[in-house]
Design goal:
The structure is a single chain. The protein has one domain: Aldolase class I (TIM Barrel, Alpha-Beta Barrel), CATH 3.20.20.70. α2 runs parallel beside α4 (60-73), α5 (89-98) runs parallel beside α6 (112-128) and α7 (156-163) packs parallel to α8. The chain is globular and about 60 Å long. With 288 residues, the protein is α/β, with parallel strands linked by helices. It starts with 5 loop residues before the first helix and ends in a 6-residue tail after the last helix. The protein has 12 helices and 10 strands. The strands form 2 sheets. An 8-stranded parallel β-barrel has the order 1-2-3-4-5-8-9-10, surrounded by 8 helices. It has a two-stranded antiparallel ribbon with strand order 6-7. It is 47% helix and 17% strand.
Length: 288
């Protein structure tokens, strides 16, 4: 199955009261773990890619080629969207040209009128190519590719204005943050989320920083219109912990376990379990 736009995936999710994971990929192991687990659980999936990860994997064309080739060789039949995460203006255009099927243009660091103007340009270009668009109002807490936010609550009227640009789904701060949540985190603002949901007319909403949010808060956020939940840090932590345990146990010194295919296997297996947990928690299993 070819890559698809994320629009229908997320409209179906919002209407069906579940959310689809958008899990960032960093290399072959990440991509394979996510795709095979989504297929096994019959879940639609978004593969998120930051511009930093694009650079690490040598470019937009390389990412599209790897993902498309892997989907073909693994016979992936569930809906998969390849999504640029927190893209710049030029990065979003480059992703569209390379064959990404969904892009997030993040102009949240700009004055609101500039964010609106540049988002409109990306929407026009993307929609002309059948590609879905996500935009952000305010800034999400924590750090993502050097963009730092403090977990602010989005302005409702700015959410309405951004939705009017024609975007397909909206990210807005409701107290969520990127990365690991501190012990004194106040939790999600469901009052803000409900106001955004009612004011924006049913557009699928996006929850960034899906690592570490308690399951009961995830469920309530989905009930209030969240259809896409971003996950990144959790897989990185799972991979690192399992790989560290493998090496610290001395298993890398046994036989040919220095072979990267063996050396990274425990980290890969840990990521598979993390992806499975998120798909089941978000309710997207058997929704493909």
């Amino acid at each position: 199955m070819a890559l698809v736009s994320a629009k229908e995936i997320l409209v179906n999710a919002r209407e069906g009261h579940y959310a689809v994971p958008a899990i960032n990929i960093n290399n072959l192991e990440w991509t394979k773990a996510i795709l095979t687990t989504a297929q096994a659980l019959n879940s639609p999936i978004l593969l998120g890619v930051s511009e930093g990860a694009v650079k690490y994997m040598t470019g937009f064309d390389a990412v599209v080629g790897m993902v498309s080739g892997m989907m073909k060789s693994l016979n992936i039949t569930v809906p998969v969207a390849l999504h640029l995460d927190h893209g710049s203006f030029e990065g979003a255009k480059a992703a569209i040209a390379a064959g990404f099927t969904s892009v997030m243009y993040d102009g949240s660091h700009l004055p609101f009128d500039e964010n609106i103007a540049e988002t409109k340009e990306i929407v026009a270009l993307a929609h002309a190519n059948g590609i879905s668009v996500e935009a952000e109002v305010g800034s999400i807490g924590g750090e993502e590719d050097g963009i730092i936010g403090t977990g602010e609550l989005a302005d409702i009227q700015e959410c309405v204005g951004m939705t009017a640009t024609g975007i397909d789904f909206l990210a807005a701060g409701i107290g969520n943050i990127h990365g690991q949540y501190p012990a004194n985190w106040a939790g999600l603002s469901f009052e803000t989320l409900q106001e955004i949901s009612e004011a924006t007319g049913g557009i699928p909403l996006v929850l960034h920083g899906g690592t570490g949010i308690p399951a009961e808060q995830i469920t309530k956020a989905i009930d209030l219109g969240v259809a896409k939940i971003n996950v990144n840090t959790e897989l990185q932590l799972a991979f690192a912990a399992a790989t560290r345990a493998f090496i610290e146990s001395g298993k890398d010194l046994e036989g040919k376990n220095y072979d990267p295919r063996k050396l990274l296997a425990s980290g890969y297996d840990a990521m598979v379990e993390a992806v499975k947990t998120k798909i089941e928690m978000f309710g997207s299993a058997n929704k493909a």
